[in-house]
């Protein structure tokens, strides 16, 4: 069967769309997922723990990780570096977990270039007004940073067509179920089931 190796999934979406909230519920609800922890040079938000939400790095440390080829991809987002450490992702895929990278669009495109069978999901709130309300409501950024992130959202909205599925985060629980279904259906894509198809062909010839 070809179902042993996990699927690599990229989840992107406007800042404030609810990606972090969705990922948390998805991992609490289902046990076949592993979430990659990125490295970043941005400062921790209150409550964020090094090694849990991110590996918090200095610019020097981050540039060393780049030089030593420890990252699958990295990008600059609103003045900070963000990148995906390679080892954990590879280990979890081998162990059969579906591995989720919650990364922005430049990184998403780099991952797809390297691993063409990556599943790309784009999360959006139902409206731009709701996006701004969520960003303001989260209360973790200054109005300046919120404005930069809203501007960045305008740019990111131009890249949505590169993704495989749009995930609309209106009601959270509905959205979590929908995302799980999309990912599980992906396991049955014919192009991912070569071993199973070969096996059934062989059995049919033998019977
Ligand atoms: P992101 O990780 O995409 O930047 P967050 O997960 O931090 O977004 O969510 C941004 C804010 O929106 C948070 O305050 C969160 O509680 C809220 N939020 C997330 N999903 C929903 C939803 N479905 N309905 C209402 N509020 C939501
Ligand atoms: P935040 O500062 O809100 O946690 O994240 C800002 C943006 O960086 C989000 O769009 C998030 O998805 C993205 N991001 C987080 N980790 C990575 C990563 O490893 N690589 C890339 N390319 N983007 C990331």
**Estimated radius of gyration:** 18 Å
Distance between the termini: 19 Å
H/E topology pattern = EHEEEHEEHEHEHHEHH
List unreliable stretches of 5+ residues. Answer: none
Strand content: 15-25%
**Ligand roster:** adenosine-5'-diphosphate, guanosine-5'-monophosphate
Strand order of the largest sheet: 2-7-1-8-9
3D shape: globular
Instruction: Output the number of helix runs.
Output: 8
Could you walk me through the main structural features you see in this protein, from its secondary elements to its overall organization?
There is one protein chain. The mean pLDDT is 95. The chain is an alpha/beta fold. The protein has helices at 19-29, 59-67, 86-94, 105-114, 128-138, 143-157, 172-187, 194-206; strands at 8-13, 33-35, 38-40, 54-56, 71-77, 80-85, 98-102, 119-124, 165-168. The longest helix has 16 residues, at 172-187. Helix content is 45%, strand content 21%. β5 (71-77) and β6 (80-85) form a beta hairpin. Adenosine-5'-diphosphate is lined by residues 13, 15-21, 134, 137-138, 169, 172.
